[in-house]
Write a structure and sequence with these properties.
Elements lengths: L1 H17 L5 H24 L3 H23 L3 H22 L13 E2 L6 E5 L7 H4 L2 H7 L3 E4 L8 H10 L4 E5 L2 H13 L3 E5 L6 H5 L17 E11 L2 E3 L2 E5 H6 L8 H13 L6 E6 L2 E6 L1 E6 L23 E6 L4 H10 L6 E6 L1 E8 L10 E6 L2 E6 L2 E15 L14 H8 L24
Parallel strand pairs: 2-3, 2-4, 4-5, 5-17
Antiparallel strand pairs: 1-6, 6-7, 6-17, 8-11, 8-15, 9-10, 9-14, 11-12, 12-13, 14-17, 15-16
Helix pairs in contact: 1-2, 1-4, 1-13, 2-3, 2-12, 7-8
């Protein structure tokens, strides 16, 4: 596969070289220019109002169309198509080669057999996920499996933490939640405090935590099988200013948008309307933060996650997934875009761009807001989105992890976690394609016999 990758990559370059007389260089340059122009247009559309926003929208649509027209009129579309196809083959073969390097990859700890709970208590939110609790008959099924269900009243706010503690005091030996990730986190903290197993039922809207546990997000009722045929995972639990979180804590632009009352009913429209005021064309307010010993000055947005995401670049296949939840480190992504040029650089160079900071840390401290010139603001609070829930917390805000603090009960038969694509490393591809058989190589460790997040069946 490594040799196929190098051959296809060489073929893509050869196509462009052979086409130089017919405009092969133009194929490459115009493609990059179109990509950068689209990024600039997107920045103008989200960070400005008025004519500049309209011009940005025209660029977003017009840049790729213009490149395609240029290829067709100039007779270059065959060269472009051939080069793109060969490069796609090269990327696919390279990733496949890197999946099989003969080396054991550090992964999550395997699941262990779990005893059937005697007094499970499940808290269910009938409004969550657009009514999934009722649509999938979760209450009836849970009660048939021996669980006691506490159904929240949609008409009145509920103290979920108090309900979970009351269940523990009454003898519950398992706590579970059918609801969103914010509710999951509150009950998970009580379960971790009392060292009780925790059951995740994917009845929320997005179910990011359930996804990264390898659960079935399309059928919440399948999660209940863990009550009779389950196994246990140990995962990390995050805390922000003492409040638990299972997925992410967001600061900056996204957190400010979430604070708006209209966001719940019209997410995209609210964000599109609010972003120009928050970004101010790259001149809006910023945040200063520290991840362990690394300073992150003047960030427009900071995302702290319970374990790092496999691919922080939103354009890659692994975006939005965490390959493990027991690594003991926070993922940190900071974004600082000062204008259209920075936006273009971010889109073209991805994680290599100076506009994006990607790292891991044991402790993250957000000091507070600053102006675009770095002058600290007088407010002693900062907007925070904790697993999607809007909060305002006093600064400095500290995020840490409690390693392997949470016992999660999962069904033995479940979809499992899709392994993230390995990062591209062309030097390693060359070494795989042409190994040095005379070098003394260490004996590779055996591959794990099964994916610990998948069923053993």
């Amino acid at each position: 596969m490594a040799r196929w990758a190098l051959g296809a990559a060489g073929g893509a370059v050869l196509v462009l070289l052979l086409a130089l007389s017919g405009g092969g260089l133009l194929v490459l340059v115009s493609g990059l220019v179109g990509l950068a122009a689209g990024a600039v247009g997107l920045w103008w559309a989200v960070a400005h109002r008025g004519p500049l926003r309209v011009l940005g929208a025209v660029l977003v649509v017009g840049a790729p169309i213009g490149v395609l027209v240029l290829y067709v009129v100039g007779g270059l579309w065959l060269f472009a198509l051939a080069a793109l196809a060969l490069w796609s083959v090269a990327l696919g073969c390279a990733r496949e080669a890197l999946r099989r390097p003969g080396e054991a990859v550090a992964g999550p700890a395997p699941a262990v057999p779990a005893a059937r709970p005697a007094q499970p208590v499940l808290i269910m939110n009938p409004k969550s996920g657009g009514g999934k609790v009722g649509r999938f008959g979760l209450v009836d099924k849970a009660e048939r499996l021996g669980a006691r269900v506490v159904l929240l009243d949609p008409a009145a706010p509920a103290d979920v933490d108090a309900l979970a503690r009351k269940a523990v005091a009454e003898g519950a030996d398992l706590l579970g939640v059918a609801g969103g990730d914010g509710t999951q986190a509150l009950v998970a903290a009580v379960a971790a405090e009392h060292d009780l197993p925790f059951l995740v039922i994917s009845a929320g809207t997005r179910n990011h935590f359930a996804m990264d546990l390898g659960l079935d997000r399309d059928d919440p009722a399948a999660c209940l099988e863990a009550l009779t045929d389950g196994e246990e995972l140990r995962v990390d639990l995050g805390t922000v200013a003492g409040r638990p979180f299972v997925n992410t804590v967001s600061f900056g632009v996204y957190a400010d948008v979430v604070q708006r009352p209209e966001y719940r009913d019209a997410k995209a429209e609210t964000a599109f309307d609010a972003l120009p005021d928050l970004l101010q064309g790259g001149q809006g307010d910023r945040l200063d933060a520290t991840a362990d010993d690394t300073r992150l000055p003047g960030q427009q947005a900071i995302l702290v996650s319970n374990n790092p995401y496999a691919a922080p670049d939103p354009l890659t296949a692994g975006a939005g997934h965490r390959s493990r939840l027991d690594g003991g480190r926070l993922g940190v992504i900071g974004i600082r875009v000062d204008g259209a040029a920075h936006a273009a650089d971010l889109v073209v160079r991805g994680t290599q761009s100076a506009a994006l900071n990607v790292l891991t840390a044991l402790r993250v401290e957000v000091h507070g807001g600053v102006t675009n010139t770095g002058v600290p603001k007088e407010e002693g609070t900062v907007a925070v989105a904790v697993d999607g829930e809007a909060l305002v917390l006093p600064t400095p805000v500290v995020c840490v992890l409690r390693p392997r603090a949470l016992r999660v009960l999962v069904p033995r038969a479940r979809p499992g976690v899709v392994p993230p694509p390995p990062p591209l490393d062309w030097r390693r591809i060359v070494r795989l394609a042409f190994p040095d058989h005379h070098a003394s190589l260490p004996t590779p460790r055996p591959e794990p016999s099964e994916d610990p997040y998948r069923s053993g069946a």
